[in-house]
Design goal:
The complex is a heterodimer. Chain A is mainly alpha-helical. Chain A has helices spanning 3-19, 26-50, 81-100, 113-132, 136-145, 147-157, 163-194, 201-204, 211-228, 237-244, 247-272, 274-300, 305-325, 329-360, 376-389, 396-411, 413-438, 444-448, 458-476, 479-495, and strands at 60-68, 73-79. Chain B is mainly α. Classes of the chains: A mainly alpha, B mainly alpha. Chains A and B meet through helix 7, helix 12, helix 14, helix 16 and helix 17 of A and strand 1, helix 5, helix 6, helix 22 and helix 23 of B.
């Protein structure tokens, strides 16, 4: 079966179909979107089982179709363990986000429901495309096109955010990504020239190039990915974008789209430019390390829930960064697992915050206070998501954070010790956020807000339940995912030619 | 039975899940399910205890599943049952069940009581995981689990700002310790390539003295966090914001002793380095004195008991720090303390129950006539903790004091006398508490009608009082012999002659206890003022927790707040501006971009400098390796 081309194309077809649903039939658009996203999820499950974790092949399930013969660019799809888990994460999150956004637009009147859901599906298709592509040009195309649906999601559909702020955030997001993308385009072309006039990833891995060229090309790719991830100091677009986007889109933005950056570093920077990767590793680790501490401190100081969570994500991306560039198996596998777990945990956190925001009509921490009294169950889920975010043992993010820090410690103790301070700061920002919103004396205006009298609904329970179950299950038994990740990370480390790759 | 160790924690875990998911639907049967779960675990634990006696060697291990397998790192979800684990399992489930039973009465009118019992069972689960694990990652799993349960229970009445703050404080201070603990795990893997107890202890001899010292210090940091030892003691007294059964179970009898467990469990590490032992002994001694001194100045019945807990755990740290035969002594003191401290905490809860939640001992008095059972059972706890023979404390605290006199050099005098001084102070402040509460004239607020608590509350008190009386005598040879095989190399420790004869230490210990008690009775026998009186420097300092909280605030909290505020400003104005500016340059001066970055030139310059310094600093850290 052609798993990979199908799983890439189906959501795009879905987007097209939903886009043509008339605005007067919002329910039909929602149902269609949910159906398409569930089909994609089914395909992801099938792909998961078709994938052979024990196989020696670097990339599996390969398909290749003619595209632009003159440039030797092809529609080549193939996955390794890393892209497989990312596809699974995307396919899981999208139906959940669809369900979570079900009623977000009902009272907005002016905005088109079919457009919103078509954009979500388009986003899903392009994001999955970045993971399935095994052709550098194809990857680049998906990487760039992915911006468009997100731009509109942020700019046109943000809840409870002034239009001006939304548009500012959307433009900022677009420009940052575009700049990174253009630099990467230059690097892609350069790679094509020195790599033997082909875009095929598998042959570019073996391309010979001079040290200087390799370093420049590395930087071209790395800059684009560092903006996307984002790493300090390219991070400032994320709090604005995360703060302005509707909660569902924000969950996808931080949960999956930003991971394309770290995925890109693993698949493209490390494998294509191994010497340069080793050369620049100290710099990348330094940026990540600053991000861990700096963004965590900033998260403590935020008064806007969605911005706060965006900052925590920047800190988390710092952990992924040090994990990738430590070049040990534990740190690398930990970083990839971190990408998955962070998607689940922060996805949940954004969705729950969205549920609070929809009720209260505000994203400001100071507009809440003692909310646990009014919506105890929702506050409980919020707390759970917070615990996942601070990597409490027993929940999935702990395993990945543990692996990253342990792996880093074996090669660089100073970095590991400083990064460990990040876990204390994580406790600070999560608990302070919980305390200021749900605990303490009840904010008197809160009880006058109509929405706050409704605790979590059945639909919302269906939204959060799978994430809660997965966070717990992978917290105690991460082996199925690790078994898929480990060989791919090992292969990547072999490509980087790190001596201890087998360790 | 021993092949099903998982049942021990699975039963309370299942019960916790059911309770947390049922919520109000379980108002009738929920609390009782909550009591039965740890009780079943207790029975299972007893059976396993007796089966373990017949094993040779007395240890059994099971690896349930592969937990974190990546390359050389193979962490299994593995369990171990040995004499040390066995006594902890019995303490946790035994005393735990009694406190659960008591809580049925204490929490009877709280509408969130089902959730309460869910958290309570969650705590038991995590605590059992902590002691049952066969590697340090499992220990850490339970370790953070009890931290979570403790947080949930301290801030159980979360609508009170003070409770919410106390819970957060506990969690964050514990995390500081946990950071040390997890670094210790990394160190083990980096240098010994394993995190399993058996292999770590086998290979630990290959570490250099320095690495061993660092490993021990990191473990000690974790232990100090969880056990409320200096310098991480500040959260424990605040934890009294939780319902009283929580204070009894978590912040007196079990969780706070986890630090002692870690050091006892890691005895091959601690015994191998005398500097390390000296540090543990010092931490224990400082904390035991600190706890006593502050305990003398507090008026809140639960806070006096909390500081007394800090101080008693100081004795246990002193014991495990002394090493050799004192490991087992620390553990039996821990067990005895579990009885008498739980007894007194629940007694305090019973007093509060009869006095409309009054906690100020200046406002009690003469209660012995109104709550006879509480009075008598509390008396047993009081006599036990101050070390009057033949009650528990005498048999478990005296040997630690005696061991402190046996270090073989001048430090024997220092630590020995400090421990004796602690005994004197303990007798003083505990007697003050006891007399002001139960004797002397009435100093009640208006409208008080004190009454005895219902049987569901006093029956556990009676059991715990019996434990407070007899546990010490029963354990002081049998349990020590039972535990000694766990503490490898105990036989090889050189025995020093005590600097004073044993009989003299015993006599002095009892004499000091009687002296302290007599002094307190003489001062407070006729009551006390209703409000704290103006006092000298020492008492004022003690009332303010010897300014340890003020220190934390000035050194960590305020600069931290200032730093976050400054960074928020810099990030919004500076870093953003710089990158926007650069982006505008690269992007060819788009009009919109230029509008985004109006002004702020100076803050750009400043933040570029700051960013440069940060990145350079981080690069330096990376280079340090």
């Amino acid at each position: 079966m052609k798993y990979l081309s199908l799983i890439t194309v189906v959501p795009l077809i879905g987007a097209l179909v939903v886009a043509f649903v008339p605005r007067s039939k919002p329910e039909l658009a929602k149902l269609l979107t949910l159906a398409f996203s569930l089909v994609v999820f089914g395909l992801a499950v099938a792909t998961w089982f078709a994938f052979d974790a024990g196989s020696k092949a670097r990339l599996q399930l390969q398909e290749s179709y003619t595209w632009i013969p003159a440039w030797d660019a092809r529609f080549t799809f193939a996955v390794d363990g890393i892209s497989l888990v990312m596809i699974a994460l995307t396919a899981l999150l999208v139906p959940i986000v669809v369900l979570a956004s079900w009623k977000d637009l009902d009272n907005s009147g002016k905005r088109s429901v079919p457009a919103y859901f078509a954009l979500i599906l388009a986003l899903e298709g392009t994001m999955i495309g970045t993971f399935t592509a095994a052709d550098v040009l194809l990857f680049y195309v998906f990487f760039e096109v992915m911006l468009v649906p997100m731009y509109f999601l942020i700019g046109s559909f943000g809840q409870d955010v002034p239009t001006k702020q939304r548009q500012y955030a959307a433009v900022k997001f677009f420009l940052y990504s575009l700049v990174g993308g253009l630099i990467m385009l230059a690097a892609v072309i350069g790679l094509w020239v020195v790599g033997g006039k082909t875009f095929e990833w598998a042959s570019l891995v073996n391309a010979d190039m001079s040290t200087g060229v390799e370093r420049w090309l590395f930087l071209g790719f790395f800059l684009a990915f560092a903006i996307k991830a984002p790493f300090f100091p390219f991070h400032t677009w994320l709090p604005d974008a995360g703060g302005a986007a509707p909660a569902g889109a924000a969950a996808l933005l931080v949960g999956v789209m930003d991971k394309v950056g770290t995925f890109g570093i693993l698949r493209y920077c490390l494998s294509l430019f191994p010497d340069a990767s080793r050369y620049f590793a100290p710099l990348a680790i330094a940026l990540s390390l600053v991000g861990i501490i700096y963004a965590a401190l900033l998260a403590v100081g935020q008064n806007d829930l969605k911005r706060l969570i965006s900052y925590t994500s920047i800190a988390h991306f710092g952990f992924i960064g040090i994990g990738i560039f430590a070049f040990t198996l534990q740190a690398g596998s930990g970083a990839v697992l971190y990408m998955v777990n962070h998607g689940l945990a922060t996805g949940l956190l954004f969705l729950v915050v969205g549920m609070f925001v929809v009720r209260r009509g505000s994203t400001l921490v100071t507009d809440f206070g003692g909310a646990g009294k009014l919506v105890p169950l929702l506050a409980g889920v919020f707390f759970f998501a917070g615990m996942a975010s601070l990597a409490l043992p027993g929940l999935a993010p702990f395993v990945s954070e543990f692996l990253v820090l342990l792996g880093v410690f074996t090669v660089n103790q100073t970095v590991a010790v400083i990064a460990t301070v990040g876990i204390i700061l994580a406790a600070c920002y999560v608990l302070w956020m919980i305390q200021r919103t749900t605990q303490g004396t009840l904010n008197p205006t809160l009880s006058t807000v109509d929405g706050m009298s409704r605790d979590i609904s059945k639909r919302e329970m269906v939204v959060v339940a799978p994430l809660i179950v997965l966070l717990l299950a992978l917290g105690f038994y991460p082996k199925p995912v690790l078994d898929v990740i480990n060989p791919a990370v090992e292969a990547t480390l072999t490509e980087v030619q790190v001596v201890e790759a087998g360790k | 039975m021993l092949s099903n160790l998982w049942l021990l924690f699975a039963i309370p875990a299942a019960s916790a899940t059911i309770l947390l998911l049922s919520g109000k639907r379980a108002l009738k049967w929920g609390p009782w399910l909550g009591v039965i779960a740890p009780a079943i675990s207790f029975v299972l634990g007893l059976i396993m205890f007796f089966q373990l006696r017949d094993l040779n060697p007395r240890v059994t291990e099971q690896n349930l599943w592969s937990f974190i397998p990546v390359g050389d790192l193979q962490v299994s979800f593995g369990l171990m049952f040995d004499p040390l684990t066995a006594v902890f399992v019995l303490l946790i489930t035994g005393v735990g069940s009694l406190i659960h039973l008591y809580a049925v009465g204490y929490m009877a009118h709280d509408e969130r009581r089902v959730t309460f019992f869910g958290y309570f069972n969650l705590f038991i689960t995590a605590m059992l995981l902590l002691v049952l694990g066969n590697n340090y990652v499992m220990l850490y799993l339970g370790w953070e689990g009890v931290g979570l349960a403790s947080y949930l229970l301290i801030s159980f009445w979360y609508t009170r700002p003070s409770a919410a703050t106390a819970g957060k404080k506990a969690f964050i201070m514990n995390r500081v310790g946990d950071a040390g603990f997890i670094l210790a795990i990394f160190l083990m893997f980096a240098y010994l390539n394993t995190v399993n107890y058996g292999q770590v202890f086998e290979r630990v001899g290959s570490l250099s003295a320095n690495t061993m010292l660092i490993l021990g210090l990191l473990l000690l940091l974790g232990a100090c966090g969880k056990s409320g030892q200096f310098p991480l003691q500040a959260w424990l007294p605040d934890a009294m914001e939780g319902p009283t059964p929580v204070s009894a179970l978590i912040h007196a009898a079990t969780m706070v002793t986890a630090g002692v467990y870690v050091i006892a469990r890691s005895n091959p590490v601690f015994s191998a380095n005398t500097t390390l032992q000296l540090i543990v002994v010092s931490v224990g001694t400082i904390t035991l004195l600190l706890g006593c001194i502050i305990g003398c100045a507090k008026d809140d019945i639960k806070r006096v008991l909390a500081w007394s807990t800090v101080s008693q755990i100081g004795y246990m740290f002193l014991g495990v720090g002394l090493g050799g035969g004192a490991y087992a002594l620390a553990i039996i003191h821990l067990l005895a303390h579990g009885f008498f401290k739980a007894n007194m905490f629940l007694g305090a809860g019973s007093v509060m129950h009869g006095m409309k939640d009054q906690v100020d001992i200046r406002r009690f008095g003469a209660l012995s006539k109104y709550m006879k059972i509480t009075w008598l059972t509390f008396m047993m706890g009081w006599l036990a903790i101050i070390g009057i023979p033949p009650l528990s404390g005498y048999f478990t605290k005296e040997p630690i004091i005696a061991a402190a006199f046996e270090r073989g050099d001048w430090t024997s005098w220092l630590f020995g006398w400090a421990a004796l001084l602690g005994a004197l102070l303990t007798a003083f402040y505990m007697t003050r508490l006891f007399v002001l509460t139960f004797h002397g004239p009435k100093r009640w607020t208006e409208g008080q009608h004190p009454h005895e608590s219902p049987p569901v509350m006093w029956i556990p008190l009676v059991f715990l009082a019996i434990g407070s009386v007899v546990a010490g005598y029963l354990m002081h040879t049998s349990v020590v012999d039972w535990l000694n095989p766990v503490f490898a190399g105990v036989e090889n420790v050189p025995e020093y002659e005590p600097v004073m004869p044993h009989w003299l230490i015993s006599v002095l210990g009892v004499a000091f206890a009687v002296l302290g008690a007599g002094l307190a009775w003489a001062i407070f026998g006729r009551g006390t003022a209703l409000e704290p009186e103006p006092a000298g420097v020492v008492v004022t300092a003690a009332r303010n927790n010897l300014y340890t909280d003020a220190f934390n605030e000035v050194v960590f909290e305020k600069p931290g707040r200032w730093l976050t505020r400054a960074l928020v400003y810099v990030d919004n104005k500076g870093v953003d501006g710089v990158v926007n500016g650069l982006a505008a340059l690269v992007g060819g001066g788009s009009g919109r971009m230029r509008r985004l970055q109006t002004g702020f030139v100076r803050s750009y310059a400043l933040s570029m400098l700051l960013g440069g310094v940060l990145v350079l600093g981080a690069l330096l850290a990376v280079r340090l390796g």
